[in-house]
Amino acid sequence: MYLLGTMLIVTALAVALMAAISYTLVIRGQSGALAYGRVGVYLSLGAVVAVVLLLLLLFVARRYDIQYVNDYSSNELELPYRIASIWAGQPGSFVIWALWGLLFAPLLIGRTRQFEPYVLVTYMLVHAVLLFFMLIFNPFAPTLENGAAVVPVDGKGLNPLLHNPWMVIHPPMLFMGYALMAVPFALAVAGLWRRDYDNWATMAMPWTLAAWCFLGTALLLGGYWAYETLGWGGYWGWDPVENSSLVPWIMSTALLHCLMLQRTHGGLRKTNFVLAILTYVSVFYASYLTRSGLLSNFSVHSFVAEGLKEIMAVVLIAMLLGTLLLAAMRWRDIPVKPLSDKLLSRDSLFVLMALTLIVLAVLIGLGTSVPLISGIPGVGHQLQAWIGAAFQIDDGTLLNPQAEPLTDGRFSLTPEFYQRTTPPLTLIVILLMIFGPLLGWRDTNMRHLVRVLRVPGLVAIAATVAAILIGVRSPLHLAYVGLSVFALGTNLVMILRTLKSGPLRIGGYLAHMGFALLLLGVIGSSAYATPDERLVLEQGETQRILGYDMTFNGWKQTPDGKGVLDVTVMREGQTFAAQPQLWFNQRMGATMATPAIWGKPLQDLYVTPAEYLPANDPNAPVMGRNDPAITSGPYQITFLGFEVDRDKMQAGETFEVGAQLQVRYEGQDTTVTPKVQVEPNATELVDVPVELPGGQLIHLENIDVNRQMVALKIDGLNLPATAAKAVLTVSVKPLVKLVWLGVIVGVLGGTIASIRRALELRARLDGARQALPRGLAGLARLTGLLGIFRH
Question: Reduced to 3 DSSP states, what percent helix, strand and coil does the chain have, rounded to the nearest 5?
Fold first, then answer.
């Protein structure tokens, strides 16, 4: 399989390069090479599809002789997760990224018309790079042990945190967004190359919108995944890896607004070229940070391997410098059209919006890059001092404590850094969203503007007063509430007006409303969530906390081997069966905890399991090797390990198994070894007790050698048993559903807008084709080899 899989990857890489070279020859005047370029595109796609199908077959067939399958799958893994394991690791993520990108490549043939060779050269070179990375991290490499190929009977399995339905959806969405971002980048390079400074922007608009939608959806799914799985009660922790995906999304938002300006009256041509380049470079930079190992000490999401660190850095620098050099060469040639000099115009507010978003992206990008920047010799300590001076702190609250043990001086920033720096910029964004949709492109009738603002403004004031009445006191939070409601109102007004012209024209306003809803949800669910309340419940006991009555019914095991705490929650006659998961994963060697969430329209009850204390009979303690000492009456007992007569066991004779116990009694430590005698073919163990200090007898009731566990019994203590207990942390998250609703509404708006722009582009291209003379129009329809590549 290694040879076949590697040959397929090499084939995909070779034909991708063939396509790029052929299209280059077309640009140089050799029109006959066009067919070879198109064949290269389709063959490259076919080879990558074959790679994916082969990899899928290996995962489904449990081929653990392949290292990648062995690392991310196992016999117990269900079929959907075995399929999802394809993109669980670094090699497979390149496969899915290249697959999405090459699936879009045929859509660029013919539809980009005279731009085709220029676009496809850049596009296929980008994907040739991805295929080269795929070859380095070969997903078909054999499983080796001490340099020799082996065939394990079972794989290592998927990380339990990834054993979640969102694993099937979230990564493909993310990489589809990444793949779509390459199209505006390639179109921008093509526009500079051809000296066609406007048509590329028209073609790039629907692609940019589609990329924005998919990347936004991926961010939503990632946030919800964290919220329902990790148990810390949040959906965005400003994790460096999550930030690295957020930056391209913010950059694409700025690009969309600037493309709108250019499409309307030709403004910001130079800005759009630079933005389109930097947006895709930020995608590659995000991939570099997460795949180089630079973030492995600062994020649980980062890949640890550093095999691509130097290569990706070279590609990233080459991509950035090469495209910016091309832009510099064309800079004086790009026509400039002045924007409106009126502050209250859509021109001015779009520019301010784009500028604010760019500053926000740069700020988050720099904060995310601190682990990289602080690793430069001599920079780390200076950077710490600068951050302390800039924020007037000296206690290190903005520095990630995980960085303390690192010898190279690197560190990352805590969420508090972003919580201090991003709110003012986001407030500017929401302020611009209030007025932007209502203004004319060049100027605005003030009387008309005031009349339109009147009703949304009154509603915003009422919402602010209501927020004060329910306890909101922070001026910043009140500003967010008032301005977000204001933005909802003005954009709703525009939707009602625009619907008369057709439903496809409301996309942008709907996206603005989604963002306003998101901000309201963020304020409510983060700033006004109740602090975590710790609750200890005995089995059968009911306690009241945060207005909810909770009863612990016991711990039980699910059919798939996981454990749940069965808790009944009641409030105002409503009942919820909360079953947060708490279990020890033997394969990962860690305790897994998943919260239970009682979702209501205005708030969520968030129940996180912290600990389960089973019913304890101090007369019969159960303990594992090197567990903390257990107290039974006057004794403190520690299990040190098993003592086995292996010679007799191997000879098939009667042998003894003892449990070495360290016993502390009245300040003195003693080692005792109660035993069981194992006779050949016997069905029961023979008890061999020993005497404890103080005269009590201790028995070895049962043993579990595999789990290194023992069950003991001490005669004569007659101590009362304790009930099983559940330790939970409970909190209430107000308005958290507005977070999910806001992203959904925003993405819906972006989807509507992308459909509209795609239809407009298609109508424009069809109109241009119909405008050709009959003979040329027929030739345009018959592109490709014998009509194979008709579009």
Answer: 55, 15, 25
